[in-house]
């Protein structure tokens, strides 16, 4: 028991340190390198250089916080979907949920810009949530028809391709001087994040995180199987609806601000489970959030700096590190079934 507790403590300590390290690196490294010693001066307004202050507080710090918050939310969304479908390769990206959210947000963005309307962050989140729920509805309907999880994943991928194709069509014909950021957003990017965006995503993700944490006990029962959960007095039907809603809110929040971000929702929960050596929700919920924050901060740092001044889309980098994890999961599952 002490050995397990020690492992959990060490794992949380590693994740927290990594989040802080990558947060500092994201703030300091860029086209203008900022000394670490300047960061406390900037944060506390204690005689810092004005140029450094503008770069950190106006661009890098809100972007780094967004990468941490949205990355954590996306990993948590993936964890909920994997629990819902009892499958380790279920996630917002593979099931087409992110693509559905992306489609609705792009429609709203183009419509508002075309009519010179002001676009609020809340409207974008609502649009993304509607898109996510529509695609999630299709996936759930398909799950009732198909017995094999592999076919369900393929169906989700196909739904995602259809939504992405429509989005690309909209973006192509909406090319205008006023919507330069729409192209970057449609490929996945944390650029252009403001403090107002950060405050809204923090509220949405924070409230959802608390809700999910309160569900840790029912999640444990649900992981044991639906029959066991029913015997424990859990209303499985309502609980499944709640899982769908919470995972869709997190996916919608990420897509609204950063566009589609691939593989984080699949890879991070699996990596975190291996690190902790357990699947207990009470540990996995905060651990997945920290793991997602670390992963996205690391990937965003590479996206900004690897080929500077050219910036890669965040999905390009997350796919490079996330896809091998998915391949490993599939091979590992096949070996387990063979045994």
From TrEMBL:
InterPro entries, per the entry: ABC_BtuC-like (IPR037294), ABC_transptr_permease_BtuC (IPR000522)
Keywords from the named record: Cell membrane, Membrane, Transmembrane, Transmembrane helix, Transport
Gene Ontology CC entries for this record: plasma membrane
Gene Ontology terms describing biological process: siderophore-iron import into cell
Subcellular location(s) of the protein: Cell membrane
Membrane topology according to the record: Multi-pass membrane protein
Any one GO molecular-function label of the UniProt entry: transmembrane transporter activity
The UniProt record lists the keyword Signal: no
Domain of life: Bacteria
Spans traversing the lipid bilayer: 61-81, 93-113, 119-141, 153-174, 194-216, 237-263, 283-303, 312-331
Family affiliation: Belongs to the binding-protein-dependent transport system permease family. FecCD subfamily.
Protein name: Iron ABC transporter permease
Native organism: Hominiventricola filiformis
